[in-house]
Design goal:
heterodimer, A: 289 residues, mainly alpha, MetI-like fold, 13 helices, 73% helix, flat, B: 363 residues, alpha+beta, Rossmann fold, OB fold (Dihydrolipoamide Acetyltransferase, E2P), 2 domains, 5-stranded antiparallel β-sheet, 8 helices, disordered C terminus, binds adenosine-5'-triphosphate, binds magnesium ion
């Protein structure tokens, strides 16, 4: 018995070491660093307790960035999931050009974010961009989509939805293909319309997939940062700044490592909270076969 | 109560013809079994009746109404699927009343029907479970209950018992039949298992390659098969088909001595059908050589060779082959069926006993 126990630990050791070295230790160090002040030439770093967090709490930019991030999550997650489901339902049917359609829907996901951001940068360019050219035909022109604090977030949200929906579609498509066709036939014979079938049978049965996609979508909303480098750099006036980009700014532009560490700790806590609550609340409503 | 008629129903998939001018009529309250080997089009026929598949030609009439192009839900049929097709996320009760809810049947009525069918199929204590927590037999009962709760007069069943073990299958056969009779349902039941067909059907329609080979009450298919196909499909072990040859004193079994006539008349081109259960051991019978002995408990199936033909016989109890492997076989003359070897059709001429050779066809 004892030997089995040792063997077990030996077997997970390599994975555990790698995970610890690159994930757990950095997390602990970050949390540790967030409790110390910024070191300068004349004053070494010292323990300040929650001092860095208090500074953060009184930083209006932090609250703005946090609000932006929540808006970004609320704007991207439900829409991209709904769109993913609709697209999966569309391409799951036996139609001509099914393969091409699936590829077309999946294409945005295959593009690197940098390329996608450049593409959308062109769409949003005032006057000569695609969007303005189309709107120009209706007499609206000269909108500075990414330069206006009121429009910049919706613009980023639209691009992110476009990029992510195809990815989530793949999961829905895989789940749809495991659905036995008799379930629809049985429901259809009983008089159920497509919609009733979707609402009463298909959607509940897709719950595990929805759950999985939801967790990923929410995490992504807090992890996506590449597009900001290309498109807005968090501007104008932090209107499109997100937590991760703000951490980057603090660490490498303002050279304020303790602030960055405190921000990172906040982000980690937020993500942990989200993951736990999703598992707790949604698990009850998910049907696993 | 409901009648069903298929008139010249055809079905092609691409260029492949699956059903060819199918004519079937089902009386109200009848239990009709569609029987046939795998791939003969039974499921396709059933799906055309239900409307899940569209006929390429012909008409489907339910209670005299042409429903060939009608939507499945407009036909007033319920269906039991081979895979049960239960909704895994819904409880037993919710599965049973699913259709009633969809059709907005009032709550009181729904509860009444649920209670009734749940008691009928013995699920009353399991209504809150999910299908995954039940055994195969219990799941099949949910599917039956769901079909019964719909109270549609016509119920279609596609091999509903094929996923169950032998003992359960036997129990469920009786249950389904009882349910059908107490509800007065018209049932079209698809199976490739002739035992199911024989024990449950009021009438059997035997399909072969998308055509009706023969239809009639089970006893008629057993007693008077119109073709060698029917003869061999109904009954276990299947009917023996023994090639005959001409002999000086009448038809002989192919490969036997020319004088050993078994029937009067010519034998060339004729097959003699004999059911294994109609052949018996007899001191005065035709000599045969034992090739294999297959003990089944209640009886023993013995494979023998007469001339160059094989003949299986069924002997009650435990049969121990004699040391020399020789037996003598006899059969009543009325047990003989004759078929044309070429077409496989039943020969019109009634068989006549061979004259002056009592050895070969002992009564
Ligand atoms: N959707 C389809 N497309 C093409 N061919 C089909 C289709 N459905 C059935 N077939 C063909 O039609 C024939 C009859 O099929 P069907 O399912 O009706 O047979 P069955 O009698 O129910 O057989 P089994 O006892 O194996 O269930 C088969 O040869 C099958 O390959
Ligand atoms: Mg079938």
């Amino acid at each position: 018995m004892r030997k089995e126990w040792v063997t077990g630990y030996l077997l997970i050791l390599p994975a555990a070491v790698v995970l610890a070295a690159f994930t757990h230790v950095p997390i602990v160090r970050t949390v540790h660093d967030s409790l110390f002040s910024r070191a300068s030439a004349i004053r070494p770093s010292r323990f300040v307790g929650t001092g860095n967090f208090e500074t953060l709490a009184s930083d209006p930019v932090f609250w703005k960035v946090l609000g932006n991030n929540l808006a970004f999550a609320l704007g991207t997650v439900p829409v991209s999931i709904a769109l993913a489901l609709v697209m999966a339902l569309l391409v799951n049917r036996k139609i001509r050009g099914q393969g091409t359609l699936r590829l077309a829907y999946f294409l945005p996901t295959m593009l690197p974010m940098i390329a996608a951001a450049n593409l959308w940068l062109f769409f949003y360019t005032p006057d000569i961009g695609l969007l303005d050219q189309i709107l120009g035909a209706f007499g609206v022109s000269g909108t500075n989509w990414l330069g206006d604090p009121d429009t910049v977030m919706p613009c980023l949200i639209a691009m992110t939805v476009w990029k992510e929906a195809g990815f989530f579609m793949i999961f829905y498509l895989a789940a749809l293909q495991t659905q036995p066709p008799e379930l629809w036939e049985a429901a259809h014979l009983e008089g159920a319309s497509r919609w009733v079938y979707f609402r009463r049978v298909l959607f509940p049965m897709l719950m595990p997939t929805t759950m999985f996609v939801l967790i990923n979508a929410v995490l992504n909303a807090f992890k996506l940062v590449d597009h900001l480098f290309i498109m807005t750099k968090g501007g104008p006036n932090n209107a499109s700044n997100l937590l991760l980009y703000y951490i980057f700014e603090n660490a490498f532009a303002f050279n304020d490592m303790p602030a960055a560490a405190a921000l990172t700790t906040v982000l980690l806590a937020l993500l942990a909270l989200l993951a736990v609550s999703q598992f707790l609340f949604l698990d009850k409503r998910v049907h696993y076969r | 109560m409901s009648t069903l008629r298929l008139e010249g129903v055809e079905k092609h998939f691409g260029g492949v013809r699956v059903l060819e001018r199918l004519d079937i009529a089902v009386e109200s309250g009848e239990f009709l079994v569609l029987l046939g080997p795998s791939g003969c089009g039974k499921t396709t026929a059933l799906r055309i009746i239900s409307g899940l598949e569209e006929a390429s030609g012909g008409r489907v009439l339910i209670d005299g109404r042409d429903v060939t192009r009608a939507a499945p839900s407009a036909r007033g049929v319920s269906m039991v699927f081979q895979s049960y097709a239960l909704f895994p996320h819904l409880s037993v009760a919710e599965n049973i009343v699913f259709g009633l809810k969809v059709r907005r049947v009032a709550r009181a009525e729904r509860d009444r029907r649920l209670k009734r069918v749940a008691e009928m199929v013995g699920l009353a204590d399991l209504l809150d479970r999910k299908p995954a927590q039940l055994s195969g037999g219990q799941r099949q009962r949910i599917a039956l209950a769901r079909a019964a709760a719909a109270e549609h007069p016509l119920c279609l069943m596609d091999e509903p018992l094929s996923n169950l073990d032998a003992k359960l299958r036997q129990e469920m056969r009786a249950e389904i039949r009882a349910l059908q009779q107490s509800l007065g349902m018209t049932v079209v039941y698809v199976t490739h298992d002739q035992v199911e067909a024989m024990s449950m059907a009021d009438r059997v329609v035997l399909l072969r390659d998308g055509r009706v080979e023969q239809s009639g009450p089970p006893a008629e298919l057993y007693a008077r098969p119109e073709t060698t196909f029917v003869a061999q499909f109904i009954g276990v072990p299947p009917m023996n088909l023994v090639a005959l040859a001409d002999g000086p004193r009448g038809a002989v079994i192919s490969g036997c001595a020319p004088g050993a006539a078994v029937l009067d008349g010519p034998g060339e081109g004729v097959l003699m059908g004999l059911r294994p259960e109609h052949v018996s051991l007899s001191e005065t019978g035709i000599p045969a050589r034992i090739e294999a002995v297959d003990y089944h408990g209640a009886d023993t199936v013995v494979s023998t060779r007469i001339g160059d033909q094989r003949l299986q016989i069924r002997i009650a109890g435990h049969f121990v082959a004699p040391k020399d492997g020789e037996v003598r076989l006899a059969w009543p003359f009325e047990a003989v069926h004759l078929f044309e070897a070429e077409s496989g059709r039943r020969a019109d001429l009634p068989p006549k006993p061979a004259k002056g050779n009592p050895q070969c066809s002992v009564v």
